[in-house]
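Complex record, two chains
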Amino acid sequence: MAKKNELVIARVFDAPRGLVFKAWTEAERLVQWWGPKGFDVKVSQLNLRPGGIFHYSMSLPDGNEMWGKFVYHEITEPERIVFVSSFSDKDGSITRAPFSQAWPLEVLNELTLTERDGKTTLTLRGGPINATEEEYKTFESAFGSMQQGFGGTFDQLDEYLAKQHV
Amino acid sequence: MRRDVFQAIADPTRREILSMIAHKSLNINSVTENFDVSRAAIYKHMKILTECGLLEIKQHGRQRFCEGRLEKLNEVSDWVAQYREFWDKRLDSLEVYLQELQGKSKKHGKKK
């Protein structure tokens, strides 16, 4: 599922795997931590099954709110969840990220949990999806270049673009 | 219609146009002549690149030149930084929640 140039984030939690899994999959637990500081998270729908949806809102005291959703692809308790995340409106239609035009509309995330000595390692792999095969290749190359320190200078950009000639 | 940097670089012809104009502005004709496809097809790609903010057409006398605005490509790497920041924050929050839940103090700090 995860492609070799996807982004990977890992974190060790001092908690058993079962608990970490619950924190990700139970609405009453998700609202406790999901969402940036100062936002009040409300779950409008959480349907934990392949094809099911987690649809939520995050609101600020000033009344501003954002909506987001996950569409679950795979759920293997207590070790793996594959889901597509996106921002949405209150009806669940996909929208652009409120903070950036460059944020992909949909991101495929693969969450894996492994437990050792009562501690849980969480690994999250992510990459944009619902792109064409061509776009996938572009994303992968882009991530590959960036992980080697793609800094954005013209020379590096030129080199990066040159590599795209197939 | 979606117009962003990702879309711009998704197409090999557009990437080729970008690499041609990465270092110097080029006369529009010398860009189109480089390709086997029709002039109209290249204009279409140029239009998309313009809409994505990566290319600017400038009039110099009677000639039109393509100029690269490649700094916009930084958005691709910005995405990576944003993704990482987004999840780092979420996971910080999850860590606090799990500690509270288990009645542990925060003295252990962040674990990587």
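Note: Chain B touches chain A through 46 residues (CB under 8 Å).
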